[in-house]
Amino acid sequence: MTAPEMPALDPATVSVQTGSSYPEPFAARCAARAKRALGDALGLRNFGVNLVELPPGTESSMRHWHDRQDEFVYVLSGELVLVTDAGEQTLGTGMAAGFPAGVGDGHQLVNRSDAPAVYLEVGDRLPGDGTVYSDIDMVLPHGGAARHVFRHKDGTPY
Question: What are the pLDDT digits (tens) for 58-107?
Fold first, then answer.
């Protein structure tokens, strides 16, 4: 098969970004997370699409919610535990979840299985989005994502 040409691509050709930009001790919990920024590779500006692989024992993120960004995930393979204020539920291949902006119910995905899980993560790119981390003393204030300026909830930097 010939290689696709833009506007198509083979996701395997997109570089893998591992880990997170979280400060320690939180970064270690996502260290094995592997993302391919498909939306960026395709030149998308209004929303992002990431192909994410979570090895066993890895968390997608710290439990969080966005004040302006909607988020959507679709499980392509494997099994993930979705953690929210309501508790935990298992998402398997073909299942999806959505997280509307401004709803203060933090979410995260955790791979508690013995096999890797792969999912698509989609989020809009509205300017001025801020992120609140539900279970820990951390926020990413408006505009902080570009600079990864994580702060404690009292505003002091990490």
Answer: 999 999 999 999 999 999 999 999 999 999 999 999 999 999 999 999 99
Question: What domains are defined for the chain?
Answer: 33-127 (2.60.120.10)
Which residues, listed in sequence order, are joined to residue 64 by a DSSP beta bridge?
107, 133
Answer yes or no: are the C-beta atoms of 75 and 119 closer than 8 Å. Answer: yes
pTM recorded for the entire structure: 0.92
Pair 35, 75: CB distance under 8 Å:
no
Q: Could you give the 3-state DSSP secondary structure of residue 158? A: coil
Determine the Cα–Cα distance for residues 100 and 66; give it in Å rounded to an integer: 8
Rounded to the nearest 5°, which phi and psi values hold at 76? -85, -35
Cα(93)–Cα(73) distance, integer angstroms: 11
pLDDT tens for 108-142 read 999 999 999 999 999 998 888 999 999 999 999 87
Over its C-alpha atoms, the chain yields an Rg (Å, rounded) of 16
Residue that the structure tokens 């508790």 belong to: 87
Instruction: Tokens 């919990």: give the residue.
Output: 29
